[in-house]
């Protein structure tokens, strides 16, 4: 279905869903980076 | 008809809805007091470890907020203060909030355990248990002492912050815990004075609903009388310096004046003194804790060593 066939509410909902997915993806990436960095910090504290 | 039903909307769940589930205003207080615990603790941790500890404290506080909204969604829709929360509004499902809350809580405790230490993780888990198990599910609908005992959950973050740095506990962080513990009842009882009808409608046995407003005013004054000297105690256990002593003593005196005004209040409908007390009580936590953090960051000497 093309965008011009959607109602304004449906377009708004699709935008909101996309925004939600981006925030979730960024949160997971940030978490992964934090896990990596914390692993480095802990490794250095134990062996460095 | 439930208040929420009159303006409930059905739409897709937004990022803002999830953020609202975290109770950001409560979370900011928890982050701030947790930060104070980290800053004033003796010793040193890597800044990233301190950041992770603070993130875990914030996440667990947010998770507790989401779980509280999920378990209390039936009464939230009956009170005007809470009827616009995401679950009563139909923006987030109760089960969804529950899953969000438990996942976030488990993640926060696990990360604290993995990357900080076991004591901080245990205290964090205990905080969630007190807020959800003891306060929300057990005491809130049963006794007017709900916020007195449940207040322990909100009081623990300085101890968690301290434990994140030292891996242990001592008298000093427990003094900070005691301050917030003693501060919680007058803070929430002030709110409940002008929200008494709301609580009565939802069947929540807050002190003004069960014992009446004069009894509540007396107890606000008694707790504030105990809080004022307790508030300056950090200056005498090696935590605070002259700046902290002056700031905490001034704030304690101000809060006491507002508690006396609330005790003598004649306008039992609008409750202007209780509203002022509520505002001052918010400052009472933020300002002296900010002084404490500033003293430690500026390396100002404590009053008592």
Could you walk me through the main structural features you see in this protein, from its secondary elements to its overall organization?
The complex is a heterodimer of chains A (48) and B (305). Chain A has 48 residues and is mainly alpha-helical. Chain A is built from one helix and no strands. Chain A has one helix at residues 8-47. The radius of gyration of chain A is 20 Å and the shape is rod-shaped. In chain A, 0% of the residues are buried. Chain B is mainly alpha-helical and 305 residues long. Chain B is built from 14 helices and no strands. In chain B, α3 (47-71) packs antiparallel against α5. The longest helix of chain B has 26 residues, at 272-297. The termini of chain B are far apart. The model of chain B is unreliable at 4-8 (pLDDT under 50).
Mean pLDDT of chain B: 95
Rounded average pLDDT of chain A: 88
Task: Give unreliable regions of chain B as ranges.
Answer: 4-8
* Contiguous runs where pLDDT drops below 50 for at least 5 residues of chain A: none
List the total number of helices of chain B.
Answer: 14
Features:
heterodimer, A: 48 residues, mainly alpha, B: 305 residues, 14 helices, globular
Describe the secondary structure blueprint for this structure.
The complex is a heterodimer of chains A (48) and B (305).
Chain A lengths: L7 H40 L1
Chain B lengths: L14 H7 L2 H17 L6 H25 L1 H4 L17 H22 L2 H22 L6 H10 L1 H10 L4 H24 L1 H7 L4 H4 L2 H20 L9 H22 L8 H26 L8
């Amino acid at each position: 279905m093309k965008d011009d066939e959607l109602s304004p509410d449906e377009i708004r909902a699709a935008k909101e869903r996309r925004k939600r997915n981006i925030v979730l993806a960024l949160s997971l990436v940030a978490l992964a980076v934090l896990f990596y960095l914390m692993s480095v910090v802990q490794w250095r504290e134990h062996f460095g | 008809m439930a208040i929420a039903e009159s303006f409930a909307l059905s739409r897709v769940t937004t990022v803002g809805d999830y953020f609202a589930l975290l109770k950001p205003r409560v979370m900011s207080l928890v982050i701030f007091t947790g930060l104070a615990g980290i800053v004033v603790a003796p010793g040193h941790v890597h800044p990233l470890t301190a950041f992770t500890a603070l993130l875990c404290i914030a996440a667990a506080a947010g998770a507790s907020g989401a779980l509280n909204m999920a378990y209390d969604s039936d009464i939230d829709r009956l009170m005007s203060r809470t009827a616009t929360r995401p679950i009563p509004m139909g923006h987030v499902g109760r089960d969804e909030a529950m899953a969000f809350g438990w996942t976030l809580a488990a993640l926060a405790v696990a990360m604290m355990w993995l990357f900080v230490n076991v004591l901080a993780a245990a205290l964090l888990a205990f905080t969630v248990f007190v807020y959800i198990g003891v306060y929300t599910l057990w005491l809130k609908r049963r006794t007017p002492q709900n916020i007195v005992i449940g207040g322990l959950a909100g009081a623990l973050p300085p101890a968690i912050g301290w434990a994140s740095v030292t891996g242990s506990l001592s008298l000093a962080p427990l003094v900070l815990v005691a301050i917030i513990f003693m501060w919680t009842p007058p803070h929430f009882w002030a709110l409940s004075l002008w929200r008494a009808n709301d609580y009565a409608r939802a069947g929540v046995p807050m002190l003004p609903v069960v014992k009446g407003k004069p009894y509540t005013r007396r107890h606000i004054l008694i707790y504030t009388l105990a809080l004022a000297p307790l508030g300056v105690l950090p200056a005498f256990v090696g935590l605070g310096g002259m700046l902290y002593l002056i700031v905490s003593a001034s704030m304690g005196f101000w809060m006491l004046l507002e508690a006396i005004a609330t005790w003598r209040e004649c306008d039992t409908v609008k409750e202007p003194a209780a509203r002022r007390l509520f505002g001052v009580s918010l400052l009472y936590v933020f300002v002296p804790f900010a002084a404490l953090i500033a003293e430690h960051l500026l390396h100002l000497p404590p009053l008592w060593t």
